[in-house]
From TrEMBL:
<dbReference type="GO" id="GO:0003677">
    <property type="term" value="F:DNA binding"/>
</dbReference>
<dbReference type="Pfam" id="PF00271">
    <property type="entry name" value="Helicase_C"/>
</dbReference>
<protein>
    <recommendedName>
        <fullName>Helicase</fullName>
    </recommendedName>
</protein>
<feature type="domain" description="Helicase ATP-binding">
    <location>
        <begin position="1"/>
        <end position="161"/>
    </location>
</feature>
<dbReference type="Pfam" id="PF04851">
    <property type="entry name" value="ResIII"/>
</dbReference>
<dbReference type="GO" id="GO:0005524">
    <property type="term" value="F:ATP binding"/>
</dbReference>
<dbReference type="InterPro" id="IPR050742">
    <property type="entry name" value="Helicase_Restrict-Modif_Enz"/>
</dbReference>
<dbReference type="GO" id="GO:0016787">
    <property type="term" value="F:hydrolase activity"/>
</dbReference>
<dbReference type="InterPro" id="IPR027417">
    <property type="entry name" value="P-loop_NTPase"/>
</dbReference>
<dbReference type="InterPro" id="IPR014001">
    <property type="entry name" value="Helicase_ATP-bd"/>
</dbReference>
<dbReference type="InterPro" id="IPR001650">
    <property type="entry name" value="Helicase_C-like"/>
</dbReference>
<dbReference type="InterPro" id="IPR006935">
    <property type="entry name" value="Helicase/UvrB_N"/>
</dbReference>
<feature type="domain" description="Helicase C-terminal">
    <location>
        <begin position="235"/>
        <end position="412"/>
    </location>
</feature>
<dbReference type="GO" id="GO:0005829">
    <property type="term" value="C:cytosol"/>
</dbReference>
Amino acid sequence: MKAETVLFLAPSISLVKQTLESWADQAKIPFTYLCVCSDNTVSSNINDDEADISVSQLGVPVTTDINEIANFLDNTKGKVRYIFSTYQSTDKISEAQKIAKDTFDLIICDEAHRTAGLRSNFSLALEDQFIRSKKRLFMTATERMVRPLLKRNAEESGKVIFSMDDENTYGPLLSKYNFGKAILDKTISDYKIIVAGVKESEVYNYIAENKHLKVEDLDENSKTQSAEILYSKILLAKAMREFSIKKTISFHSSIQRAKNFVSENGEEISLSSVIREFNQNIESSNLYIDNINCQIDAGSRAQILDKFRNSEFSVISNAKCLTEGVDVPIIDSVYFIDRKKSLVDIVQACGRALRTKKGVAKTAYFIIPILIPESSVASDILHSEDFEIVYNIIQALRDQDNRLEDWINRLNSEYIATGRIGRSPSGYDPVSVQIEGVDIQQFSEELYVQIATVNANPTDTQKKQVFGKGERKTGHSRIFKTIGDFSFESFIKNLIDPTINIFRDKKRNIMSGTDLKYNHNNVSHTFRLGLTEKDGKNYKLTPLGEYYLDGQIKPRDLFKKQMLRYSNTLEDQRSQRILFPYRACLEILKGLESFEPLTFNEFAFCIYPMYDSTEESIQTAIEDIKYLRKNYPKLEAINMANQPQILEVLNNHFTTSLTETDIWGAKATTVKNQFMYFRNHLSLFDEVIVIKNGNICLKTDISAKDIEKILSVDMGIEKIDKKNWFAKYTEVFIMLMIFGLV
């Protein structure tokens, strides 16, 4: 593209230095350059732990003088010229460009995820109103998307916010180099996630047996802190022994915790002594342990990293300052001692160990220590707060590694088909469990189930779907409909009672639809419930409507009775097909002879497609549900990657035409609405039905006879012809004792 005037941006002086040195080494065309940065680049908040070198260590002249930058742009026209700058100094470049009236051919944004978020110096280069450029190139290992809620909040408060999925700002994706592809190309090293656990008893026994630590002199809080620090030391020492690890950087939630981990103050069992005790081949002379943080000057940090490189075995602790801008290819493990929730930080931290020297094969280990309470079982451990970081690390790497994504998809596919997961599929297993005293095979299988569900989908795929006109409709032509798409409570309060009250207030038995209109649905749904009937262009109360107006029946009992009478009709070339949807649901629940919950998926594939409520159709629905339960016992756990294939199989088997939106889309789709309202309506039969976890369940203390008793009311209605059905539907109840209406 023949870019002669280029602005390169990075978040730290050290990255500017690395880039300038590499650029100069690889450049085939002579260029002139200017470095724009200052020591203000470094955060003044020590809690950020964002360490950087000083401008004096850049090794070349630097400036933040606006006129000097403008002169550089004016006096070097016609030459290949580059400005290397930190994001923090872009305001100076913006001001200088106003003076020079110049435009960059290209802006390169390194660690471009730092530009996303609220408008700041980090985002000035995104907009021509601040820094003009013909082209922009964004490079990052961790694309950052801003959640829709944050976008809305920013817009409502008048703030500008940037998200890397906005093509208007960031443009289309030019190239993506996946971790998996880079590993196959041997550009970066392969990795293994190590879940390392130790029982509490082992830690306390170790403390008790250590002669150098006088436990009796410590209060309970100090004992607990000592145990917390010690177990992470023991697990690192064991991992070094088990996997021949030599170079480790550990990440902590604060600078102080990072310091405590490597300190040798006499009050703790030192990391050095623990490592040497578990690794007989390691001695004090070939083991280097230290801490790096933003409070240490750049010269001292460089010396620490040199010692780290040159020692045979090394451990450096930090909070965050080694996340970016550290190029030490010999690092072979990252130790996540404290929980990390930022997926960006996790990927950046893992990246420290993925770098490799050309021609040198290695495996990077990402180690997560877990303290195991004595009485814990696998499910307790896997659902604990401490275990959350395991899923966070897997999720962060899943978004970057197509191999890991494929592996999780296979786990998910096996789980939805069998309800369990055996050994890792295809022999590839990026996770290793190292916990003494537990059944590793059983623990791993339960862990696979958690990964198959918790890490089922890529990050930022669970966005709320926005529908256009008609897009809420299902792909299935339906007859299976509720008596009304409202909850029972809303049906009575907002539709039925206002209509009946108008009849009562007007003291008239016949009224026009206009006079009756209270809202958009009250007239039609009062008619649908059988309380009114048409009289020409008007409406009048039915015998049942008059009965309700006089207060002789309660709303709940009215609704239950009418559900059992309600039907839909389908006319086809062969015959008239009648479906009593609520009666059919109860018949199916009875016929399943199981207290297993009726799920949405079972409703969608096996009940929703019904066209009539004959014995044959009901039996078909029962067999279909049994098939689904046997062959796809965990269908609700399916991930996005497996959805198209499984949906095609199910549609072919059940001869349905349901779409991914129908089954896995937003709640507002028609089929999900129908299940939601059927569930709400059927819950009124609380003598036999209970709702659990959003599913329809039979009470465990009932029998088929209890359902038969409900269905026996108006039992003959299914055999009445269409002409006489409405009269039956709108007549006053006779067997009132069934619902306790006396």
